[in-house]
Amino acid sequence: MLAKLDRYIGLQVLLSILVVMLIIVGLDFLFRVIDEMSELNEGYTLWIMLGYSVLNMPAAFYEFLPLGCLVGCLLGLGALASGSELTVMRAAGVSVWRLVKMVLKPIIVLSLLALMIGEYVAPYSGTLSESIRAQHLNRGTISARTGVWHREGGEYIHINVVTPDGDIQGVTRFMLAEDSQLIYNSYAQSGHYEQGSWLLHEVVETQFLENETQTQLHDTLPWNIELTPQRLKVLMVKPKEMSTSELYRYSQYLDDQELDNDRYMQSFWRKVFQPLAIIGLVLVAVSFIFGSLRSVSSGQRIITGVVVGMVFKISQDILAPVSSLYSIDPIWSALVPILICMSLGGWLIKRAG
Fold this sequence. Notes:
Order of helices and strands: HHHHHEEEEEEHHHHHH
Distance between the termini: 21 Å
Largest sheet: 6 strands, antiparallel
């Protein structure tokens, strides 16, 4: 009997979550398309833009899964509550915590699927999408929207395009002295990585002397820097679209360069604790169904779920800069909202039980 209830409730919750995720990811795709319409040109065509938007869908699925699980649980369990099915289950001797376990089974499966997407699919598709977009938008100029900036030592670097195979295009370099005076700048059409160093092609280098400038042309020019193709691919995507391993390695690299790595460590801990975040939000959803949202409409449950999900996300977004400002370990900016959700949800469920 309990096995049948497991399957029934699990399927009800899973289908509700998938429907919610389809709507959320679809809306994210639509908004991205609308935002990119203004960038269309002869190179960046409609079909390329649509391909770019599709490649960002795995990252959107991973990012919005906690909210989808929250709203999906509210809808799935709410439908059972509206039909008095949960009341019958309780009357038959099924405890609230037993129902929570039934709900968590499909949630755990989705969390494991999200971990795989976040670790392998989203980073690759995100890198590929940004590379395609940059290749079709850039025309040999520095672009803050499509290129990446980096600093190593006294050298400031801008790279227009990082291809999926690790080659680079449109490399602009600025070298500053200790007194912040410009020593030289150079522009290379392209570059590739071999035997532990970069080889730049078609380089125009300008040196700034005391009373004059000197320009030199190089067919090829070696470039020794610790920035590898793997680290460059990391730079092409937002921290939230990177895998946990990439986030950790790049954070350590920034730390070695004495650069601020808080943003990357905050994203790292968010990814590490995302399964716990989903469980915490699901506990809140279950507590609402057995409490204040037992007999309300589906629309009210959706609104409640969206509000709770937004409050949770905003709290993490606010705690992130606060932790940086007061030199608090980034782990707490991700963990504190989760602990609050789990404690609140557990307490409300205990009261309902």
